Amino acid sequence: MTELLEQPIPAPIAPQTIDKVSIVISKGSLEGIYPGLIMANGARMEGIEADLFFTFFGLDAIRRDRQERIKVATVGNPGMHMPTLVGALPGFSALATKLMQRQMEKLDIPPIPEFVELIADSGAGLYACRASVEMFGLTLADFVPQVSDVISVGEFYALAGGGQIIFT
Amino acid sequence: MTTATSANTNVDVDAEGFLVDARQWSERLAEEIARENGVPNLTPRHWLVVNFMRDRYLETGTAPSIRSLGKESGVPVRELYELFPKGPAKLAAKIGGIPKPRGCI
Which domain holds residue B63? Predict the structure, then answer.
């Protein structure tokens, strides 16, 4: 005679959550900067802790002298679906940028300077990468006031402890 | 999904606890939802945000973005996050009895 054993009931698994993200922004084009900003803002909107680390040309997003002049890359960008020579025409990048900005305004996506301020006000930390800052001959004074500090990669990892790192 | 409130009324909520029908909302229910979501006491500043969210939704059919919330509600972004640390737009929508904002901004 076989005896039916009671099946053990597996313990319910709580859905995994993300509590903290550290986002690296390494590119200086419009399409290189926005994804990281949108992810940082989106994290804060969900109550997730977020820090932003700007490196290499990503620093343009927080440089006082460049922040308002970020352009779409129309050359060497297959996503534009047009011949590279067309993208290289004078004024073309400015035009593409203007069109994209108009579309973003319609969707209530703020321009980069306003977006950076919004994210900082939402409680995210903004940091500049020391190696890049030194390479470009910059200081903390070259950045918008929302930037808390210039930090090394080691300090970045310490800040990112216990969370997820996203590189853009 | 139907859930009973301590006010002894039944309201319809989605899987995340947002009201399905904005008409079932009441101020008493708002206070209850707030307590359950880590906001023990709704101050006049909280109410300003909650009412702005709700009014804007009932007017336009969509909840405002965090950007317009910060610009137009009368409560700046920094304070919004102090009032609702777990996400102002999401939480104010929940307390205000309107669907979860679906936008990315």
Answer: 2-95
pLDDT digits (tens, 9 = 90+) for A115-161: 999 999 999 999 999 999 999 999 999 999 999 999 999 999 999 99
B15: closest CA of chain A, how far (Å): 13
User: Measured between alpha carbons, how far is residue A15 from residues A18, A43, A56, A166, B33 in Å?
Assistant: 10, 17, 36, 21, 22
- Nearest residue of chain B to residue A119 (CA atoms): B77
In 3D space, the residue among A119, A110, A167, A106 whose CA is nearest the CA of residue A147 turns out to be A119
CATH of the domain at B40: 1.10.10.370
For A:51-110, CB contacts with B below 8 A are 107-110
Judged by a CB distance cut-off of 8 A, whether residue A46 touches chain B is yes
d(CA B96, CA A4): 52
B74 within domain boundaries: yes
Q: Is B84 a domain residue?
A: yes
Residues of B in contact with A47 (CB under 8 A): 85-87, 90
Q: Which of A32, A28, A36, A34 is nearest to A53 (CA)?
A: A36
Q: How many domains are contained in chain B?
A: 1
Is residue B101 in a domain? no
Spatial separation of the C-alpha atoms in residues A132 and A135, rounded to whole Å? 5
Q: Tell me which residues of B are annotated as active site.
A: 104
Summarize the confidence of residues B47-73 as an average pLDDT. Answer: 93
CB contact under 8 A, B90 and A46: yes
